[in-house]
UniProtKB/TrEMBL annotation:
It comes from Candidatus Adlerbacteria bacterium GW2011_GWA1_54_10. It holds the Pfam family LDcluster4. This is Protein containing YHS domain protein. Gene3D superfamilies: 3.40.50.450. InterPro entries: LDcluster4.
Length: 210
């Protein structure tokens, strides 16, 4: 059983995708579930925007495998999250209420992750991709029958900016593993930075005053 000392070393993978999924294809649900399962199976934490659709399906898959899920809400409270934004609270172990609306939520969620995985999406997904790209985050693009992967390819081709931290793959397990490998390459080698509690020091002159 973990004592919590090194739980911060768990890789945090954000899921970006459409909340409304009518354009995503008939197998998008199964693919979202599969992606979440692969994240949990590998011991990573799944992060999403505490929303419906593809990110929710991925969280469902992660919870099936006993994974940890964290949602970042655009609302400033659970009440606002449910009543104003009409968003779910299910399949999330923890919800962080950012209070910054959808654009601010996107920024906080993306920057809180070690890497971002993209499924079927719309304009909000492209917004999160742009943040991850500019922050040089490892990025995984889930290739499938939807158009999002091709749209991102077109953006990259016309953007004329190289980025060696973007992976395209149609296999969810392989995609997750390859992205996690990129994250590990970016990690600080903790071997030379071990923290050891130090004994309390007696201030100079304290012994003379006693």
């Amino acid at each position: 059983m973990s004592n919590g000392k090194h739980e911060h070393l768990q890789i945090k993978l954000a899921i970006s995708g459409a909340a409304e999924t009518g354009h995503c294809g008939i197998d998008a649900y199964d693919k979202g579930i599969a992606l979440g399962r692969e994240i949990a199976t590998r011991g990573a934490v799944l992060i999403n925007g505490a929303t419906t659709g593809f990110p929710l399906w991925a969280a469902m898959g992660a919870k099936e495998k006993g994974g940890t899920t964290v949602g970042f809400s655009p609302a400033n409270s659970e009440k606002e999250h449910i009543e104003q934004y009409n968003l779910p609270v299910e399949y999330l172990d923890l919800i962080i209420y950012t209070g910054f609306g959808f654009p601010g939520r996107d920024l906080i969620m993306t920057r809180s992750a070690d890497a971002v995985l993209f499924g079927c999406g719309r304009i909000g997904t492209i917004h999160e991709f742009t943040i991850a790209f500019e922050d040089r985050k490892p990025i995984g693009i889930f290739e499938a029958d939807w158009e999002t992967d091709e749209e991102i390819k077109a953006i990259l081709e016309k953007g004329h900016r190289e980025n060696d931290k973007i992976i395209f793959d149609s296999d969810p397990g392989r995609l997750v593993e390859r992205v996690m490998d990129l994250v590990r390459q970016d990690r600080v080698n903790r071997a030379s930075f071990r923290f050891e509690p130090q004994p309390a020091q007696t201030p100079p002159g304290a012994a003379l005053q006693a």
